[in-house]
Amino acid sequence: MRRQGPTTKEELRQSLDEIIQQAYNNGVDLNDGAYPLQHDDPDTPDFELMLFQLKS
């Protein structure tokens, strides 16, 4: 079975960057948000993704 999606941390970073930029460009409010990623499958771990806008 062929893997889908990122297979390295760098690919994950690039994928997250792309989807976050798309959401931002679509007007989604991303400022200082926490996003729980919970799953019904007990074999799939739950995560929480936190976004903070960096000031430059």
UniProtKB/TrEMBL annotation:
The organism's place on the tree of life at top rank:
Archaea
The name this protein goes by in its record: Uncharacterized protein
Q: Which organism is it from?
A: Halobellus litoreus
Taxonomic classification, please? Archaea, Methanobacteriati, Methanobacteriota, Stenosarchaea group, Halobacteria
